[in-house]
Amino acid sequence: MDIEKFSAIAQQIETEVARVIVGQREVVRDVLICILAGRHALLEGVPGLGKTQLIRTLADVLDLHFSRIQFTPDLMPSDITGTNVMEETEDGRKVFRFQQGPIFANLILADEINRATPKTQSALLEAMQEKTVTVAGTMYPMAQPFFVLATQNPVEQEGTYPLPEAQLDRFMFKINVDFPTVDELVEIIARTTGVDNPTASKVATGEQVIAMRELALQTPVASHVNRYVAELIVASQPDNPAAPDMVKRFVQYGASPRGAQALILGAKINALLEGRFNVAFEDIEAIAKPALRHRLLLNFEGLAEGIQTDDVVANLLDVVQRVPA
Asked: What is the pTM of this model?
């Protein structure tokens, strides 16, 4: 895998997805970055914006084993991971056999993840972080590549359970799916209410996705860019004397070290998608909001003032100085 082939495959993926998904180019790009990084993504938006359709389309384009889990309040952890079932052998003996759950696939759509209880949400934690599932003391490895793309409705809606911070932190990006424009809505109506339904073709395999991830990991990052990312994360801590006033006033907890990892890895892939084999400050800024917005916890005053975490990220980008090499 080289940078030219990387760019060509990525462009084909985005082109095929655009055959089905109207607009939402930034959303598609952010989800693609997570997949190429081998990480997980959380998509948030009101129902009907095409979140589920986007993930289904990506599974088709990438020729991956796809599994959908519809999260509901009565869903149990074993409904996700699987369970041991008793079977009778030919000689009359009774033995336990592990029956895999829907999580054993390459691309998992965790649909409306915040509809399930916290106990069920946590069933994904081990698989997301360790790429394994443990049932009755036995560990089962996940197939590779493995991605969890979760969707959730805004927590203000009834019947939802906000994801705990520990699980939010394991998503590389939190991607906001906005309402379409008038022109995009007209195109959506035309595509979805006629006889012909657009479909996407397969343009990449799981092996190619893994090879693209390996190339991304090899992408160099200059020391001054690494330091800029570290200073962004440290500046998001409200108890840091050098933190901006906005952080000290409105933030309760800042971003974790996983935020720094997400910034660097996302910036590497963003640079490759732009045809460059080195990371610039602009790549960090391009993915800063989806990488950090779910890792900042606002305090009561911030919530009362209607502050958004995107506002805090924008303030950090304005305040933290970019020192060139």
From this structure: 0.85
